Amino acid sequence: MAEPIRALDVPARTTTIYPEALAAPLKGRAKRKLGDLFHLTQFGVNLTVLAPGAASAHRHWHESEDEFVYVIEGEVTLVDDEGEHILGPGMCVGFKAAVPNGHMLVNKSSASATYLEVGTRAEGDRAHYPEADMLAVKENGAYRLTHKDGTPY
Questions:
Q1: Burial status of residue 46 (CB atoms within 10 A of its CB: 0-12, 13-18, 19 or more)
Q2: Which terminus of the chain is more solvent-facing, meaning fewer CB atoms within 10 Å of its CB: N or C?
Q3: Rounded CA gap, 30 and 63, in Å?
Q4: Tens of pLDDT, residues 111-146
Q5: Backbone angles phi, psi at 72, to 5 degrees
């Protein structure tokens, strides 16, 4: 049996793979990679806290990976191709792979927000960023960022 843990005891990652010029909106994001602790290989699980004003990512969509978000505490604004949608505790949303609907979460409230994100762990993927000059290319399970024309950062 796997040893149970308290999710909030896991150290949070506050860095991003984004280039410095594109990283500012993510300041205030703390992500705990829970799936990694249990060596899960088919899907990832992250417990994420967004401070007021922080974003989960730039708007993006994946060619090969599904994403699911469940809000635990606080309020986040989902920004996607159809506009803005307020998500509160108990609300959830999913994003099917290969559907080009750029999405992100932003905490526009005055209190922290906590959500659980679950996603596919494909060996290869491409994440597209409609509003940023960025493309994330995943090969052998690891992402690298390039400009949209393929030149590296």
A1: buried
A2: N
A3: 25
A4: 999 999 999 999 999 999 999 999 999 998 889 999
A5: -95, -45
Q: All domains of the chain, ordered by start, with CATH?
A: 23-123 (2.60.120.10)
Strand order in the sheet with 104-106: 83-87, 76-80, 104-106
Task: Report residue 109 as tokens.
Answer: 């409230």
Q: In the structure, what pLDDT confidence band is assigned to residue 148 with cuts at 50, 70 and 90?
A: very high
Instruction: Determine the pLDDT at residue 2.
Output: 83
Q: Report the greatest alpha carbon distance in the chain.
A: 47
Question: 95, 61 in Cβ contact below 8 A?
Answer: yes
